[in-house]
Write a structure and sequence with these properties.
- The complex is a heterodimer of chains A (about 300) and B (about 325).
- Chain A has about 300 residues and is an all-alpha fold.
- Chain A has one domain (about 1-210).
- Chain A has helices at about 1-30, 35-55, 60-80, 85-105, 120-125, 135-155, 155-165, 170-175, 180-205, 215-230, 235-260, 270-295; strands at about 110, 205-210.
- Chain A has a two-stranded antiparallel ribbon with strand order 1-2.
- Chain B has 2 domains: about 1-145 and about 265-290, Response regulator (Rossmann fold); about 150-260 and about 295-330, Rossmann fold, CATH 3.40.50.2300.
- In chain B, strands 7-6-8-9-10-12-13-14 form an 8-stranded mixed beta sheet, sandwiched between helices. A 6-stranded parallel beta sheet of chain B has the order 2-1-3-4-5-11, with helices on both faces.
- Classes of the chains: A mainly alpha (about 300), B alpha/beta (about 325).
Chain lengths: ~300, ~325
C-alpha cells in the first residue's frame, strides 16, 4: 500500500511539472494549448537521443529538453499571434508537426533507456542512504524547486504582465504593452516545462516512445481542475500548489482504480471513463458548492 | 505418432511440475499488455491456457493479476509498480512499451520478467543478448519477429514480374520500423526494390495505399497494428491496381488479401507460456535465451487471386498450409 502510494506520488510530481505548464496556458493565459501532446514527447525524445547517442550528462539533457519545448511553444505562439491562426488550431498544427519532428529526433519510434545512465539511476546511487524513497525525495525537490521558481517569476514585471494578459488583454494593450510578445513568452515557458516533464518521465520509465504524449493535455487539465476545485485561491503561490496537489490526486486515483477497481466491477477498459468522470466531478463541485452557499444565505 | 509421443512426454513432465508447485501457496503472476488488441489478447489467453494445460489451475495454483495500460505509457508504468507492490512472483509483459516499463520497475529485484510479442528485444533494451542469456539478469521472453526475408522471397517466387514491392507501415510503431528495415535489406539481396508509404493512424491507411498504386507490383504489410486494423482499404487498392497483396497475418485471409504468412498469436501465447513454465520449474531467466516464434504458415486466397488474374505457381501451392477457394477454407490434408 505504502509502496504504490509512493510510486503514484513520484509520477504525480513528475507529471505535475507538465501540469504546471498546462496551468500557465489554460489558467493564466486563457489559451487552450494542445501543443503539449507533442512537446511532452519532444522533451523525452531530445533527452533520450542525447543520452543514448551522444552520451551527454542527463542533467544537461533536461536543460536542452526545456529549450526544445520552449521553441515548440514559440512556434504555436507565432502561428497564433503573427499569422492569426486561432489558438486551438495553432496548437493542433504544432502538435501534428511535432509528431514528425519527434520521429526525426529519435530516428526510430522507441528509444530504450534501460541500459543508459539516466538521472534516476544517478539519484538512486547518490541518495543511496535514503533507500527506496530516494527517487521520491529527488523528484519532490525538483518539482518544488520549479514551482518556487515559477512563483517568483510571476512576481516579476514580465510575470505580472503575463497574468494581466490572460485576465484583461485590452487593459494591458492600453498600458502600451505588446501582448503578442507576452503570449509567445507564456507559451514558450509552458511548453518548456512540459518538455522537461517528458524528459524526466522518459528517464524515470526507462524509455521514450513517440506515442507517450497522447493525453498530456487531458491529464494536465485534470490536475489543474481537480487542484483548483480543492484549493480555491487567487494567489499564484496557492494556485501552483493546487496544480501539484491535483496531479498527485489524479495519479493516486489512477493507481487506486487499477488496484481496487475490480471490487466495483471495474474493467481495464473503463479506466479512461473513470479518470474523465473524476475531472467532471471536479468541475461540477465548485459550481454546486456556490449554489449551496447562495441557498443558505438569508435574502 | 512421434509427435504425439513427445507431446505426451512433455505433458507428463509439465504435470509433475504442476503438482510439485501446487503443494505451496498459489503463484502470483502479473500479466500486463499495452492495449486492447485481438493479437495481444490472444497472447494473454495463450499464456493462461498453456499454464492451465500444464496443471496450474487458475485460482488454486496460480493467481493472475491481469492489467491493460489502454495505450498509456504512464499507466503501463503504474501497472508494473502495482505488480511490484503486490509482490508478484512473475511478470508477463506483452508488447514493447509494457515490457520496457516492467523491466525498469523490476530491475532491482529478482522477480522474473517474461516478455512476449516483442520484435526486437535487444533494440528495446530488454536484454543484452538474445542468444546468450547469461547477462540478461531476471529478463527473458519470446519474440514475434516474422521472417521478413522469406516473405519477400515468396513474393518474388509468386511472379517474376514483381520487382517493386510497396510497404505500408506506421513509423510510430517500433516493431514495424524494425520489420520494414529488414524488408528493405532482404529485398536488396534479392534485387528487388521496396517503396514505402507511411500511415500514422488507421484513417490514413487508404491514402497511403493509393499513393503506391501504379508505382509497385505488389503490396506487403508486416505485423503493423495500425495498417492491419485497416486492412480492407489496402485490399481495395490492391484489387484496383490488380496486384497481389501479402500480409504477415494469417487471420486476415478472409478480408481479401491474396496470400498471408505468419503465425497465430494464440500460438505465440502458448510459446510464452512454455517459457513461464520453465521459470516456474526453477530455471533462471538468465539461463533461457530469447525464444523466436517459429512455425509460420502460408495461406492462399484463390478467390482473391482470381480477381486480379493471378495464378499461383505450383511451387507455392505445394507449400501452402491452407487455401481459401469458393469462400471455403481448405486445410492441407495430412500426408504420411
Amino acid at each position: 500500500m505504502a509502496l504504490i502510494l509512493m510510486h503514484a506520488a513520484e509520477q504525480g510530481l513528475l507529471y505535475g511539472i507538465a501540469a504546471l505548464g498546462v496551468f500557465i496556458t489554460y489558467r493564466i493565459l486563457n489559451f487552450p494549448d494542445l501543443t503539449v501532446d507533442g512537446s511532452f514527447v519532444t522533451g523525452a525524445a531530445i533527452a533520450s537521443s542525447l543520452l543514448v547517442t551522444y552520451g551527454l550528462d542527463p542533467a544537461i539533457t533536461l536543460v536542452i529538453a526545456f529549450a526544445a519545448g520552449a521553441i515548440a511553444g514559440t512556434v504555436t505562439g507565432l502561428l497564433n499571434t503573427r499569422l492569426g491562426i486561432t489558438d486551438l488550431l495553432a496548437g493542433v498544427l504544432s502538435m501534428i508537426m511535432l509528431y514528425s519532428i519527434n520521429l526525426r529526433i529519435m530516428g526510430r519510434p522507441n528509444i530504450s533507456l534501460l541500459r543508459a545512465d539516466t538521472i534516476i539511476r544517478i539519484v538512486q546511487r547518490g541518495f543511496h542512504s535514503l533507500g527506496i524513497v530516494g527517487v521520491l525525495v529527488f523528484v519532490a525537490l525538483v518539482t518544488i524547486a520549479i514551482k518556487v521558481l515559477l512563483d517568483l517569476f510571476f512576481k516579476t514585471e514580465i510575470g505580472l504582465v503575463l497574468r494581466a494578459t490572460g485576465d484583461n488583454e485590452r487593459m494591458v494593450i492600453a498600458q502600451g504593452v505588446n501582448t503578442k510578445t507576452t503570449k509567445v513568452a507564456g507559451l514558450a515557458l509552458s511548453n518548456g516545462l512540459v518538455a522537461l516533464s517528458g524528459a524526466l518521465v522518459a528517464q524515470y520509465s526507462g524509455f521514450a516512445d513517440v506515442g507517450m504524449g497522447v493525453g498530456t493535455i487531458v491529464t494536465g487539465l485534470a490536475a489543474v481542475i481537480i487542484g483548483g476545485s480543492l484549493i480555491r485561491s487567487r494567489k499564484v503561490v496557492w494556485m501552483t500548489t493546487s496544480v501539484l496537489v491535483g496531479s498527485l490526486i489524479y495519479r493516486i486515483a489512477v493507481m487506486f482504480a487499477l488496484r481496487y477497481g475490480y471490487v466495483i466491477g471495474f474493467q481495464a477498459s473503463d479506466l479512461k471513463l473513470v479518470t474523465s468522470l473524476l475531472v467532471i466531478v471536479a468541475l461540477v463541485i465548485p459550481a454546486f458548492r456556490a449554489r449551496m452557499e447562495r441557498k443558505v444565505k438569508p435574502c | 505418432m512421434k509427435k504425439l509421443l513427445s507431446v505426451m512426454v512433455v505433458g507428463l513432465i509439465v504435470l509433475s511440475i504442476g503438482t510439485l508447485v501446487a503443494a505451496g501457496d498459489p503463484i502470483k503472476i502479473g500479466i500486463c499488455q499495452i492495449v486492447e488488441h485481438p493479437a495481444l489478447d490472444a497472447v494473454r489467453q495463450g499464456v493462461i491456457d498453456s499454464l492451465s494445460a500444464a496443471g496450474f489451475s487458475d485460482g488454486v495454483d496460480v493467481i493472475y493479476l491481469v492489467a491493460n495500460a489502454q495505450g498509456d505509457m504512464g499507466t503501463a508504468l503504474a501497472i508494473a509498480q502495482d505488480f511490484k507492490a503486490q509482490n508478484v512472483d512473475l511478470v508477463v509483459a506483452i508488447a514493447t512499451p509494457t515490457a520496457q516499463a516492467a523491466v525498469q520497475v523490476f530491475s532491482d529485484t529478482d522477480t522474473p520478467v517474461i516478455f512476449a510479442a516483442v520484435t526486437d528485444p535487444v533494440a528495446a533494451g530488454l536484454v543484452v543478448d538474445a542468444d546468450d542469456p547469461s547477462g540478461n539478469g531476471n529478463v527473458t521472453g519470446t519474440s514475434d519477429r516474422i521472417p521478413v526475408a522469406s516473405d519477400i522471397a515468396l513474393l518474388k517466387e509468386l511472379s517474376p514480374d514483381i520487382t517493386r514491392i510497396g510497404i505500408i507501415y506506421n513509423p510510430g510503431e517500433a516493431n514495424s520500423v524494425v520489420l520494414t528495415d529488414l524488408a528493405v535489406a532482404a529485398a536488396g539481396d534479392l534485387g528487388l526494390t521496396i517503396i514505402k508509404a507511411v500511415a500514422d493512424n488507421s484513417a490514413n491507411v487508404p491514402i497511403a495505399a493509393q499513393s503506391l498504386s501504379g508505382r509497385v507490383d505488389a503490396f506487403y504489410v508486416t505485423t503493423d497494428n495500425t495498417v492491419v486494423s485497416a486492412i480492407g482499404s489496402v485490399v481495395a487498392a490492391a484489387e484496383e491496381a490488380k496486384i497481389p497483396f501479402l500480409v504477415a497475418d494469417p487471420t486476415s485471409l478472409a478480408s481479401g488479401v491474396t496470400l498471408a504468412t505468419g503465425f497465430d498469436y494464440y500460438q505465440h501465447g502458448l510459446l510464452t507460456g512454455s517459457v513461464v513454465q520453465q521459470v516456474l520449474a526453477g530455471k533462471k531467466p538468465s539461463e533461457i535465451p530469447v525464444t523466436y516464434q517459429s512455425g509460420g504458415q502460408i495461406v492462399l486466397n484463390l478467390d482473391a487471386a482470381e480477381k486480379i488474374g493471378l495464378v499461383f505457381p505450383q511451387t507455392i501451392i505445394a507449400k501452402a498450409d491452407k487455401i481459401l477457394l469458393g469462400g471455403i477454407e481448405w486445410e492441407k490434408a495430412e500426408t504420411k
